[in-house]
Specification:
The complex is a heterodimer of chains A (about 250) and B (about 90).
Chain A: H1 2-22, H2 31-59, H3 65-70, H4 81-84, H5 90-111, H6 117-145, H7 149-162, H8 174-181, H9 192-206, H10 228-242
Helix pairs in contact in A: 1-2, 1-8, 2-6, 5-6, 5-7, 5-9, 6-9
Chain B: E1 6-12, E2 20-26, H1 30-41, E3 49-54, H2 66-70
Antiparallel strand pairs in B: 1-2, 1-3
The chains are: A mainly alpha (about 250), B alpha+beta (about 90).
Chain lengths: ~250, ~90
Amino acid sequence: MSRFEYLLRLGDNALILSQRLGEWCGHGPALEEDIAITNVALDLLGQARNWLTYAGEVEGRGRDEDQLAFLRDAGEYRNVLLVEHPNGDFGQTMARQFLFDSWHHLLLDKLTGSTDERVRGIAEKSLKEVTYHLRRSTDWIVRLGDGTEESHARVQSAIDGLWMFTGELFEVDAVEEEMQRAGIGCDLAALRGPWMSNVERVFTEATLKIPKQTWMQRGGKRGVHTEKLGYILAEMQFLQRAYPGAQW
Amino acid sequence: MNDWPLWEVFVRGQHGLAHQHAGSLHAPDAETAINNARDVYTRRNEGVSIWVVKSSDIAASSPGDKGPMFEPANTKPYRHPTFYDVPDEVKHL
């Protein structure tokens, strides 16, 4: 069952962040950004479909991607807390994206060496997309951080607020350990070093500071979420809850 | 955002072809313009290469010059390479 849990974590991260980014549709600060953000959202949605489809097969109870996405309650979701954090302003969305992309890229890169053929395949496909996501969010962090006084202040305050949700990205528990032993997953704790050096490099260029606070909030990976996730699911799952089995 | 300059986007559809004008977009700088062009114009697998150039850097002929610029060519069909048979093997001509 560890593998099912593990695949849910991968799928739910992509699904919830995709749903969050989708909220920007029609509200982007410029038409070009509107298209770019929703494009990233669609990439992540495609990744979520791949992970959740495989999760359903591994579970073996006949649940497909739709049932996993639309019929699980908040406590059954396994995404990290970072991705359910509200969009806030554009700087906050980009800060969340950059912190996540930096980690996501390292993780997928490791998973391209997975002993599980399906995991390897999905990781290889996703890595190409995430390489671009990271490039885009990096470019924006540098521009906002090293931009105007206001953009600098806003993005710094966004980073200060989000920092406590970054610890969970590297948290190793029994599921992670088992996946690593089986060669399916990787050593999450070992990603912290490269992640931090990338963040430091970009923040230096962006004239931003890494928050000093060390206390980290956690829980998403075992289903203990912030109250925000309930609102996301209420919107995302409404149709299937109100009209069970409805199809396009 | 209102002061973002306008950029003209040129996309090369496949290797061996020339870049074609795809459209224009707003972006604060060249790098972001390329990122945006990727999302606006190549997301359905349209390209292998992107050029962007500031619209203000493009020098254009004036619509009023249509007569002197283009009309003299109308009466000179011998300038068109239409008197040759193109072999079937030649592509992209």
